[in-house]
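Teaching soon. Invent one.


***
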Amino acid sequence: MKKICIMTLGCKVNKYESDALVKLLEEHGFLTTEKLEFADIFVINTCAVTAEAEKKSRQMIARCRKFNPKARILICGCASQKNQIQFKEKGVEVVTGVAGKTKLVDIIEQGNIDVSELPLIYEDDMIAKQSRIRAYIKIQDGCNNFCSYCIIPYLRGRSRSRSMESIMQEANAFGAEIKEIVLTGINVTDYKINGKNGLLTLLQRLDTLGKRLRLSSLEETLVSEEFVKGLARLKNFCPHFHLSLQSGCDSVLKRMNRKYTADEFYNSVALLRKYFPLAGITTDVIVGFPDESDDEFEVTRQFIERVKFSSLHIFKYSHRDGTVASRMKDLDDKIKSQRSDVLESVKAELFDEFVKKNKGGKVLVEEFDGQYYVGYTENYIKCYIQSDKDLVNQIVNVEIGERFKDGVLAKYKN
């Protein structure tokens, strides 16, 4: 029996698609692993969101060869969609892109394939193998936003939505061991039913299953009184909103081709907190965007402190050929690093403030690390819990304690 190792770089969408490949390969009689170890065949599901991600995708080839120099290596994903030559020059046998990943099962036996054209409708041929406890469901692919810094719309194609019937069929098949469903996609906000936004309708249907519901991300443009009020009526919705900011300065947002102002973003956050006072609100911020001045960065820093996010994902701007921003003047890496360090300090302070507001919560315990039971509250505080009782795969009440590692210590409450 041939052993196939699937290595995944990048986003949760890539992970979902890799898990779907695992399921398909096992159904065809292959032994699979997602741990980097000896295998007959390696499948590398690549990422191209930043230059560093693309570099790591290429480096993974050498890492795989260390475990088996004679192994066949198959490449798929965004980095090969962007530039397949960079991988073929490294002697990999097969290259495909974003589309048609399920064809990898056939070409393991049949030979080479080139990058497929991006589909115009959702390719509904990938159902992930789910681990217990938390399940990801891909509901959408592609993006129509064309932010000036982002290569993904060119690699993933235009936004296309999966049918609600297909999503519900997958969700209905989950057993009782799965306690939480996370909706994921390239732009979840753009999920549509019959051409109209259908995210709230989908959540309402999923809410009937009695499992915790979580969004992987949300765009400010969808936040309205009607939408948020609808979320508040759901019985099982987890109030954690990953609301991408990118910059808190209007002039930078305009150069980024983002579709909102800082004030509009702030008002959306205020609306979310109106209905979910203790919501976890996390965000992405790009530092060192082309031509970003010291004053523009300072506006962003002050805005972040004003919003009081529960956490930040901080990215140094990465030049991507083919984007509008690639024609703008890039900043020195030293400036990007300095600004990143400033926001890292702000991030730590804001997390401490957020934790102090939370006295307790319900934690879905995902694992035992040998000393602590680890999981997340509904508003996405990572908790480390000591208990003599086996808590894995249970939703338990906790009392929030002091800062610990990348989360907090929490006391289990019977």
Summary: The CA atoms of residues 287 and 338 lie 9 Å apart. The two ends are 47 Å apart (CA to CA). The longest strand covers residues 395-404.
